[in-house]
Design goal:
This protein has 131 residues and is of the alpha/beta class. It is built from 5 helices and 7 strands. 47% of the residues lie in helices and 22% in strands. Strands 2-1-3-6-7 form a 5-stranded parallel beta sheet, sandwiched between helices.
């Protein structure tokens, strides 16, 4: 089975390193630090999944999520918000913006991998249903 290509958006380089440690051998991880970089990447080479922090310096991962959901070529892309924004209101806002999953930092590596596998499985099932 081919490795998942995941676009990871977070302004913290330390989190990029942690994600590489957790996902590096099972996935191809592309790390960017801003919504603008993420949009450029999405236009050039859409990944299998998008994982984004909500709080990105002066930007918002929620805006990126909405962009994905309103872009026809990307609207079926699985989106996970991996964030330190942990209130119920934050979670609701994330799902209303179009996120498929919402994971709170700090995260357990095994739990994160399980959630990623679940999103990938759901995407596969949806693709089969369209055929």
């Amino acid at each position: 089975m081919r490795k998942l290509h995941i676009l990871f958006v977070d302004s913290d380089p330390g989190t990029h390193e942690r994600m590489q440690q957790v996902l590096g051998k099972d996935c191809i991880l592309h790390c960017v630090r801003s919504v603008a970089e993420a949009k450029d990447f999405l236009r050039i080479s859409p990944p299998d999944m998008l994982i984004s922090e909500v709080a990105l310096l002066s930007e918002s991962g929620l805006e990126l999520c909405q962009y994905v959901r309103h872009t026809p070529e990307l609207d079926a892309l699985p989106v996970m918000l991996l964030t330190s924004c942990a209130t119920l209101q934050d979670k609701v806002a994330g799902f209303e913006a179009g996120a498929d999953d919402y994971v709170i930092k700090p995260f357990d590596a095994h739990y994160l991998v399980a959630r990623i596998r679940l999103l990938a499985r759901i995407k596969r099932l949806e693709q089969r249903a369209r055929i």
